[in-house]
Write a structure and sequence with these properties.
mainly beta
Length: about 210
């Protein structure tokens, strides 16, 4: 949820091509109730700035490549309170979703450019360029790639000075639960980086029940 403006461990080899079996990915650190904390860099050419961010998973359906949750941004300069948004995610599993977004003003070139910022994507690049990665079997890959799209503000109005027009390219590490992401919105500063770590205690961040959802 950036300001509205007008302007590592080496991954293991891909397990193989998708031969028709389910490519649903499983990860013990990606489940309902899991919490993450970190920062989002919202720097622009004018100034360097980073916000503290808490994320909590509220729903997860790996079979259908879906998850959802809430994101809380703290120390936002123009807000009197932490800003909470509800987001929905697409898990790139080559069955339900591929690496090509096909919406939200993202072209295939935008997709490749953003995914390529994750070192763990490098072994997949050639196949993704060929067919969007449809023939890849990611079921045992140590990273899960996703897109997170914020749907609405939970506790503030749309006049809060922030935008949720874009979406996040996400890379999730199954080994330690860390999350890296890059925000894409043609009308926002490019490559705003999200960096989160799993808290593992289920208590970090806000209480979802404290906010009334739409």
């Amino acid at each position: 949820m950036p300001v509205r403006v007008l302007e590592n461990t080496a991954p293991s080899q891909v397990s193989g091509t998708n031969s028709g079996r389910s490519s649903s990915q499983s990860c013990s650190l990606l489940g309902v109730g899991q919490a993450f904390s970190g920062t989002q860099n919202v720097s622009s050419v004018q100034k360097d700035e980073a916000w503290r961010v808490n994320v909590r998973i509220q729903g997860c359906d790996l079979e259908h490549g879906y998850l959802c949750g809430t994101m809380e941004a703290l120390n936002v300069p123009m807000a009197d309170t932490p800003v909470v948004t509800f987001w929905e995610g697409e898990i790139v599993d080559t069955k339900n979703y591929t690496f090509f977004t096909g919406k939200w003003e993202a072209t295939p070139e935008d997709d490749i450019r953003h995914w390529s910022k994750f070192p763990s994507f490098s072994p997949l690049l050639g196949q993704v360029e060929a067919d969007g990665g449809k023939s890849l079997d990611l079921s045992n890959y140590p990273y899960i790639f996703m897109r997170w799209k914020e749907q609405y503000f939970v506790n503030v109005g749309t006049d809060c000075g922030l935008t949720i027009a874009g979406f996040y390219y996400i890379c999730f590490s199954c080994s330690d639960g860390s999350i890296s992401g890059f925000y894409y919105d043609p009308n926002s500063s490019p490559y705003q980086k999200l960096e989160l770590k799993s808290t593992n205690d289920g208590r970090s961040g806000f209480s979802f029940s404290s906010y009334e959802l739409q």
